[in-house]
Amino acid sequence: MKKFLKVLALVLVLAFLYFGFTTYPKLDLISGFSAKSVASGHFMDHRSLDLIQKTDNDIHLLDLATNTINDAGKFATSAVYGLKERKAIYRDGLGALLINDDYDVSKPYLLPKRTKLVNNLPFPYGNSEPKDTAFANVDYAKLKKAIDDSFDKNGGKAKRTRAVVVLYKDKLIGEKYDTGFNKDSKILGWSMTKSITSSAFGVLAKQGKIDIYKPAPIKEWQNDERKNITVNDLLHMNSGLEWEENYSTICDATQMLFQSEDMGKVQMDKPAKYKPNTHWYYSSGTTNLLSRILRSQFKTQQEYLDFWYSAVIDKIGMNSMIVEQDMSGTFVGSSYGWATPRDWSKFGLLYLHKGNWNGEQILDESWVKYTATPTNTSQGKYGAQFWLNAGGKFPDVPRDMFYCSGYQGQMVAIIPSLDMVIVRMGVKEEEPGFDFNGFLKGIIESVKK
Length: 449
Description:
- By secondary structure, the protein is α+β, with helices and mostly antiparallel strands.
- It has 13 helices and 15 strands.
- Helix 2 crosses helix 7.
- The longest helix is centred in the N-terminal third of the chain and has 21 residues, at 2-22.
- The N and C termini lie far apart (77 Å).
């Protein structure tokens, strides 16, 4: 018996040491991710804690968190085994904000001044219900099957699609939602928000207020090799700045999203690893630096807040969209854009029509072409904060497709040659989780040329 107890004690000690070295350093990130997810999902989309825990937070390690919601105080807290408690507060019009212990919740804050598009037009150019439209060349039975096949059946968790919206020739031809979600559900686009950030620069460029080919306006870079990095390099994610993005571990990206007060500064402070325009690699920090640069283009914080909405979001009737901020008041342009699937499809439609929205040229055609042109060294898979199929990643999809893409399989696919926009939102990444090529292929094949 004594020998057994000694062995048991040794096992417990080893387990404790293993936990200390492998998991404990991640606790702050786990509880931070969880608190932010709960606060955003509950207060922005009215999801229950149970639904969030079962569908948003059922991720390895994240499911270790214990979460609570305070509806009266409008905040959520999370901790792991009672350790490393984190708090996320909700502010109407701004969304949820993950805060540190020393954040002053009583300090005043500004709200974006919005002029939401109101008209009697049917969706997608308005927010009235779409008109019934039947295209002779669309096999609706085949389309329905392709959409249905992208959803799980009988409570399964193999595909985990939440929403699909299909636009063809400016008309809604297909739409479906998973249990608990509907056309009014706000869903986090994660890195699809990067494309929103890019569009804001597109408007500034159209207005002649920024030259993206000039060095980035960052005074901290002026005395070293980083002074040669342009806004164009940043938009293309080939600035050469040091960065690590790996969401399975502690890295630059996870520390930025769940610990940093000023997310744009994280990438700004990184040294140059390569010369600009020689190495492409993905960096959410770069996009948040772009958001910080965008802030520097305006005299006041209020102008900066308003611009994101007045320039694009509200112009095209994405009335549901909220882009959340970091603790410094900068929009988290890399990751935190929320909108309904229908509103995400509107953004795709804007780019499908080369920056024109129902007769108004919001972005120059040249900007959309720039967006969809492959970045140097990306092997045809990336443009200016948009992903591309130019390199044939999806073999059964036209090569001219470019798309917004986000964590856990968010997608707004824009296919100019087919006059089509396809939105898929869910909580499952690409193969072996979700077969995007097969999904897109099925929808595409339902439309006869």
